[in-house]
Amino acid sequence: MTAPTRWLTAEQLxxxxxxxxxxxxxxSTAVFRRRPTHRQKAHLYLTALRHRARELGERVTxxxxxxxxxxxxxxxxxxxxxxxxxxxxxxxxxxxxELGASILPSRGFVTNExxxxxxxxxxxxxQLVMDRFYREVRERTGILMTPxxxxxxxxxxxxxxxxxxxxxxxxxxxxxPWQPVEDDIDAEVRAELDGxxxxxVRFLGRDGPRLxxxxxxxxxxxxxxxxxxxxxxxGPYEDAMMLGDDTMAHARLSVPMNLGLLHPLEVVERVxxxxxxxxxxxxxxxxxxxxxxxxxxxxxxxxxxxGPDYTRRSNALAAHEPLPAHWWALDGSATDARCLSHTLxxxxxxxxxxxxxxxxxxxxxxxxxxxxxxxxxxWFQGAFVDGTPWVMPANVVGMSQWAxxxxxxxxxxxxGGAYIQRMSDFCGSCRFNPKVRVGPDACPxxxxxxxxxxxxxxxxxxxxxxxxxxxxxxxxxxxxxxxQQERARGAL
Length: 492
Ligand SMILES: Cc1cc2nc3c(=O)[nH]c(=O)nc-3n(C[C@H](O)[C@H](O)[C@H](O)COP(=O)(O)OP(=O)(O)OC[C@H]3O[C@@H](n4cnc5c(N)ncnc54)[C@H](O)[C@@H]3O)c2cc1C
Ligand code: SF4
What we know:
Blueprint (H helix, E strand, L loop, with lengths): L4 E4 L14 E5 L3 H4 L4 H18 L3 E5 L3 H7 L7 E4 L4 H9 L3 E3 L8 H8 L9 H12 L3 E2 L2 E2 L33 H15 L17 H14 L1 H4 L19 H5 L5 H13 L5 H25 L3 H4 L11 H4 L9 H13 L4 H15 L3 H11 L8 H9 L16 H7 L20 H17 L6 H9 L3 H11 L3
Parallel strand pairs: 1-2, 1-4, 2-3, 4-5
Antiparallel strand pairs: 6-7
Helix pairs in contact: 2-7, 6-12, 11-12, 12-18, 15-16, 16-18, 16-20, 17-18, 20-22
Bound molecules: flavin-adenine dinucleotide (FAD) and iron/sulfur cluster.
The site of flavin-adenine dinucleotide has 27 residues, from helix 10, helix 12, helix 16 and helix 18.
């Protein structure tokens, strides 16, 4: 009998997913008609698939089709003829099972799904906190561990990693981040996407030069560049935001990792080796290790643990406002809030923003204004170049919107303008004042924070971590005025 052909999805393009046998890759542009997608994300996915097909040469069957199911069935790849590495979405997992494929365990993460299931078994939903998971992974893998305990005497150096942006500087002063050199495949993809637009397919954001790695060689080059130019500053400025520097010291490696081109353990081993050689500080190295073996794996496992209906059924704060049209248009000019306007424009131009603008500007605005969490999830998935189904539930629904009522995050991540003022240089050029909550200068995040608490008070009254903010709300002399003002202001 001939060996089964392995279907690799667009998230399984690196060497970790290839054991040398025959491979089928399926490209479908039909998804762009169904789901609004950033133009640069569409470009990345198509170019990554086509580069991989070229690399694999005669070993690959490359199919362009409107449906994955039809493509595999038409090629006779069902039952014993088809093999899959358990794919990274509920929909693709259903498909390979319905086609009768033989299925290998998933790859591309540090821990496996049965380890997580063992860890989660017997814990209450609210005890699945990331910090505990991260400690256990450190202990189990020995990463950054000594015989006496965690390297440096503590598991987390987060407290050292909250520096505001340097005063008086426009940027962190680092070299521009690594960028690929486009080739003939990129040009061919760009022309095809132009053609789709001419046929009426509506993409999000603007086209632009490709900024992220889409091949294995590019992924390794981007990793080298990050380690050489940014790793040292990653920790201290992890949470800071600057108008003139959208990347700061972040890695921009989520795209190649989510495409399967780079394994998170490769990144971990590389940065730990830099620390061991005395070339990188522990707070930066531990900070990145926590993102990878903590947050990234945890978010992945929660996708499966929370189930396929989690997003649809989660709306604990009864948030039903539609997402404003300018969010879908990624048009920052429609809002005067400098932080939000800048972030929307940045995402429109690049499909990227680092973690804090995602959580504390976009997520925070949506939480305060009561935007529908399911619609927000579709938006995040389409608008960001690294958006994948498995990333969304824990990050968007759970963490940023608290729509599950406390499974993923112990309290809502709502913050007023004071946080944004402390951690960014946005407020200086804004027409609002982060210290003012009533009147024409009232900051929509500061006033919005109190209006949010006022709206959701009945749902969060029992949460002891919200006792202090709610006590503050009760003491607010102008509470009613703030609430009326923000109701009149409406969407942001
Ligand atoms: C509301 C919201 C939406 C997000 N959407 C996405 C998304 O669509 N795709 C995505 O990959 N990440 C997402 N994240 C997580 C995180 O913001 C991005 O992974 C990160 O900003 C990517 O940029 P970077 O590679 O420069 O990251 P760095 O800050 O340099 O971090 C290093 C790596 O750690 C991993 N990581 C860190 N935190 C997380 C996390 N919470 N979830 C998953 N991976 C993590 C990423 O692979 C990232 O590349 C989201 C977070 C929030 C709060
Ligand atoms: S003043 Fe308020 S709206 Fe303006 S940038 Fe600061 S936090 Fe954002």
